[in-house]
Amino acid sequence: MPDLQWKDSDSVGIASLDAQHQGLFATAHRLRDAMRSGRAATIQQEILAELGAYTRSHFEREERVMQICAFPALCGHQHLHRSFLEQLQAIQAELRSDRSGITPDRMEFMRVWMRKHVAIEDAQYATWIHRRELPVHGLTTTEIQEKQKCHF
Ligand SMILES: [Fe+2]
Ligand SMILES: [Fe+2]
Asked: How far is CA 43 from CA 30, 93, 138, in A?
């Protein structure tokens, strides 16, 4: 999985969401730099809190876009978002109790998740929105609404 770099191939075709993805990668990059250079745990906590808040607001915006565009796999995508936010909260709690700073394995988990999510899962709604070769385009509005329903 490539490093914390946003590339043109990551574009979802919506400028505001691309800008948020770039901002998220940049924030995670700062956190990793702080970890690697041994910055104080309180500084790392602040950057992680920033990353958490940024991620939350990005997910909200992205889910609104998916809803407006009638993306049928919205529910599954929301579930991925929700479980990542839970993981972030757990890492935040861990960092508050263990003052030695974020661990490399937690940092790597976040990096890999973010890279993969943008490159693979976000690319799926981008494909849908831009009407590229998806068989589900034959669905009726009612069928799409039914598929979007969440059961968790
Ligand atoms: Fe995203
Ligand atoms: Fe997403």
From this structure: 10, 15, 51
- 4 vs 31: which has the higher pLDDT: 31
Q: In order of start, what are the domains of the chain with their CATH numbers?
A: 9-148 (1.20.120.50)
Model pLDDT for residues 108-131, shown as the tens digit of each residue: 999 999 999 999 999 999 988 876
CA of 66 to the centre of ligand 2 (A): 9
Q: How far is the CA of 21 from the centre of ligand 1 (A)?
A: 6
Q: Which one of the ligands is nearest to 118 CA?
A: 1
Structure token digits, residue 36: 């690697």
Cα–Cα distance for residue pair 57/109, rounded to 1 Å? 20
This prediction has a pTM of 0.85
> What stretch of H or E contains 81?
helix 74-97
Comparing CA positions, the residue from 28, 11, 34 lying closest to residue 111 is 28
pLDDT at 8: 93
Sign of CA dihedral 152, 65, 127, 4: negative
Quote the CA–CA distance of 152 and 27 in Å, as a whole number: 30
